[in-house]
Specification:
mainly alpha, elongated
């Protein structure tokens, strides 16, 4: 829907926005104080410029809140909000995915 490939469905947009909003809040606890120690595949920038990383995390959550709010209007503005969200948060996506995978592998290394 956000890319205009399928027709707009207000309920699906709202449901998916809620899921994405929840997921946008999940990874940040894994990057608290001391989590830079040991083997990690996280990009060094996360630890060198943690304030910027925190800024991106906050921005992701703020933008997802806007997507959720737009999705509740039931209008096509959801598409525009999704496009804006994707553009604003693209810097965070790859870094977060890499770090989540690293934390998962570290937790399950002995399993």
């Amino acid at each position: 829907m956000a890319q205009g490939r399928v027709p707009f469905d207000a309920k699906a947009a709202a449901d998916n926005a809620a899921v994405a909003d929840s997921m946008a809040k999940l990874p940040w606890a894994a990057f608290g104080e001391g989590t830079d120690k040991g083997e990690t595949q996280a990009k060094p920038e996360v630890w060198k410029d943690s304030a910027k990383f925190k800024e991106y995390a906050d921005k992701l959550q703020t933008e997802m809140g806007k997507v959720v709010a737009a999705s509740k209007t039931g209008s096509m503005t959801v598409q525009e909000q999704a496009r804006r969200h994707r553009a604003r948060c693209s810097k965070v996506s790859g870094t977060v995915h890499t770090m989540q995978a690293t934390k998962y592998r570290a937790r399950n290394a002995g399993a």
